[in-house]
């Protein structure tokens, strides 16, 4: 009996979603194809009917993860009625919740170090997605892209350091300092 129309696309989507979750939490190198397939509820053998190699999956998982993050941050921003929406996004991005929910958080803090050693194809996709994220942040903050890059760099760097330390109080202090610095940057850039 043949599969229903759209089955292969749906399965591919499950694999990409599983990979994005796994890469966000464990990085690229420490995640195997069998682990990704198991996370999608599939067997390892079916991987190559959907992807040529792991690098192709990494590229698609990056695109998926950034679309997912932008949609989440837009939802967070849309819930704010009083304060500037970018402040709400900064507060969420640099929150203990976002720090700790690695499986659904932004991939830039999780993968930036590894991406520099990836294939040119993956680096091109990552670059494009980073520019897309910076454009989202810049538009939300109503600032030019150059300033948006500085703001997002502060946010990512703060989250990387908060995740890197073993002391919970120090981790929280990196988040708080990042929120304060990002909002101060906003005021000086917009003022």
From TrEMBL:
<dbReference type="InterPro" id="IPR036271">
    <property type="entry name" value="Tet_transcr_reg_TetR-rel_C_sf"/>
</dbReference>
<dbReference type="InterPro" id="IPR001647">
    <property type="entry name" value="HTH_TetR"/>
</dbReference>
<feature type="DNA-binding region" description="H-T-H motif">
    <location>
        <begin position="32"/>
        <end position="51"/>
    </location>
</feature>
<keyword id="KW-0804">Transcription</keyword>
<keyword id="KW-0238">DNA-binding</keyword>
<dbReference type="InterPro" id="IPR023772">
    <property type="entry name" value="DNA-bd_HTH_TetR-type_CS"/>
</dbReference>
<keyword id="KW-0805">Transcription regulation</keyword>
<feature type="domain" description="HTH tetR-type">
    <location>
        <begin position="9"/>
        <end position="69"/>
    </location>
</feature>
<dbReference type="InterPro" id="IPR009057">
    <property type="entry name" value="Homeodomain-like_sf"/>
</dbReference>
<dbReference type="Pfam" id="PF00440">
    <property type="entry name" value="TetR_N"/>
</dbReference>
<protein>
    <submittedName>
        <fullName>TetR family transcriptional regulator</fullName>
    </submittedName>
</protein>
